[in-house]
Design brief:
Layout lengths: L9 E5 L2 E5 L3 E2 L12 H7 L4 E2 L2 E5 L22 E2 L7 H4 L1 H20 L14 H15 L8 E4 L2 H11 L1 E10 L4 H7 L6 E5 L1 E2 L2 E2 L1 H11 L12 E7 L13 H14 L2 E5 L32 E6 L11 E4 L2 H8 L2 H6 L4 H12 L2 H27 L5 E2 L7 E5 L6 H12 L1 E2 L1 E2 L12 E5 L5 H21 L9
Helix pairs in contact: 3-11, 4-11, 7-8, 12-14, 13-14
InterPro entries: Aminotransferase_I/II_large, PyrdxlP-dep_Trfase, PyrdxlP-dep_Trfase_major, PyrdxlP-dep_Trfase_small
Pfam families: Aminotran_1_2
Protein name: Aminotransferase class I/classII large domain-containing protein
Length: 484
């Protein structure tokens, strides 16, 4: 424990935390104290009497990666085969050593040639021009659809892009429509905006039920919202339209067109988490992204209601923290003037320079090709096992891309205790479905990821899990409904 020094913060270690004692301050000065006190408490203290409050901060342990702190998610733990995590493994990430070394040399040589060293200066608000130019070319050839540099805003990844959208163009008291099951970290992010309401939309065949979405939009649109020249959308529909997380499914072209029309007619935004689009396994090009259907040449085009939120985390490396927002002119113009971008002088400016070189030298194209082949093999290995060993009272759909397979157990089985049991008995685990629902629905579902482990490991673990389902049903004496 440190000794107390008047007027300074003192600390001590207590049960894994550091306890901070806040210095004395008089009530009525500019800051009374960190922490909250009721009006009665303040009156009992007297306005000129000092008071103290304490708060605790968990001691920062030595951790090596995002999943290190949680034993249930530590995918590097070799004692359990963890099929939960949507992140690449070391066998793929090791290739980044050579890729980034080559890109770094190229980019620094380019800086020396020019002699201005702009790469180390504050950047322009929308992000490094060369990076957006190369990114537009890269996306055009990989999507098979045109992408324009001026439609791109660089971000620190898709989560940062989502935060920008929530704070920059959406009403502070607006509505966020989400699929009944969706990306769980997005749900966590939405909870940090207590004035915004999250409304779940039912799903049908593992994709959004657009009839239900339209009903919900009509029920909400005429309420009062705080809008101005920047907060232009009263609501947003957050979705993963291509290779959905967690179901793996993709919206059909007709559904995409209907979503675009619905967003235009009702003046809300559609924010697409487009991080898996380029990981497609059956065709030369992936399905058209939803943004492609919001055509500026349409007579009813309203300046862009669809926002595509992309990232290099799934197609290169999570650590780069570089992503992009692709959007229409009215959203682009607002984002360019947002406080965090305008004051920050671009995001991840130096790393954007390295990404520009990776794209210019076609290094990312070659790496992405290898990722597609690798993940395609892993997806096939998993689905082959499920086709052969998954009990017939369970079901799943075979995705054509992305990271995830969504398994449905009998409706009266809760996947949470099953996965706990499977982890303890068979040393295999995945994420229960309720984690992806705003209301804790889909309790009988499991999401499996193909991202981290080899095809052989995935196949072995999936076989064990299928057998575990049968054993768990026997142990729990559950009679499956074969008509499901």
């Amino acid at each position: 424990m440190a000794s107390k020094v008047a007027g300074k913060i003192c600390w001590k270690r207590v049960c894994g935390t550091r306890s901070f004692e806040i210095p004395r301050r008089k009530i009525g000065t500019s800051v009374a104290a960190s922490g909250a006190a009721s009006k009665t408490q303040l009156e009992s203290l007297g306005r000129d009497k000092p008071f103290r409050t304490t708060m605790s901060i968990e001691v920062d342990p030595y951790l090596r990666h995002l999943f290190d702190a949680d034993p249930a998610l530590n995918v590097y733990n070799s004692s359990i085969v963890n099929l939960s995590v949507g992140a690449p493994g070391p066998d793929l990430l090791k290739q980044c050593n050579t890729l980034l070394a080559t890109a770094t040399r190229h980019r620094l040589e380019e800086e020396e040639k020019e002699g201005k060293y702009y790469l180390f200066q504050y950047g322009i608000t929308s992000g490094l021009w060369e990076c957006r130019e190369e990114l537009a070319k890269f996306l055009t050839r990989r999507y098979g659809d045109p992408v324009a540099r001026e439609d791109l805003i660089l971000t620190c990844g898709a989560t940062h892009g989502l935060q920008l959208i929530l704070t920059s163009v959406m009403a502070p008291d607006g509505v966020i429509f989400v699929d009944e099951v969706t990306y769980m970290i997005a749900l966590d992010a939405f909870k940090q905006f207590p004035l915004k309401r999250v409304v779940s939309v039912p799903m049908k065949n593992d994709v959004v039920d657009l009839d239900e979405l339209e009903k919900l939009v009509q029920a909400e649109r005429h309420k009062s919202y705080t809008l101005n020249e920047n907060k232009i959308f009263w609501a947003m529909y957050y979705t993963v339209p291509t290779f959905h997380n967690p179901t793996g499914m993709t919206l059909t072209p007709d559904m995409c067109k209907r979503v675009v029309k619905m967003s235009r007619d009702n003046a809300f935004a559609v924010v697409c988490d487009d991080v898996y689009n380029l990981l497609h396994y059956n065709n030369e090009y992936p399905p058209h992204r939803l943004f492609n259907y919001d055509d500026s040449q349409d007579p009813d085009y309203t300046g862009g209601n669809i926002i595509s939120n992309g990232s290099f985390s799934k197609i290169l490396s999570p650590a780069l923290r570089v992503g992009w927002i692709e959007c229409g002119p009215r959203v682009v113009n607002i984002l360019k003037n947002s406080g965090i971008l305008k004051s920050g002088g671009a995001v991840n400016h130096y790393v954007s320079g390295l990404v520009a070189s990776l794209l210019h030298l076609k290094l990312e194209d070659r790496y992405l090709d290898s990722l597609i082949e690798t993940y395609k093999g892993r997806m096939k290995a998993l689905c082959d096992v499920l086709d052969e060993h998954l009990p017939n009272y369970c079901s799943y759909n075979h995705p054509e891309g992305g990271y995830f397979v969504w398994i449905k157990l009998p409706e009266d089985i809760d996947a949470l205790p099953f996965m706990e049991w499977c982890k303890q008995v068979y040393k295999v685990m995945a994420i229960p479905g309720a984690r992806f629902s705003n209301h804790g629905e889909s309790k009988n579902c499991i999401r499996i990821s193909i991202a981290f482990h080899s095809a052989e490991t995935i196949a072995k673990a999936a076989t064990i899990m299928c057998n575990a389902i049968t054993e768990y049903m026997r142990v729990k004496n559950v009679k499956p409904n074969l008509n499901m």
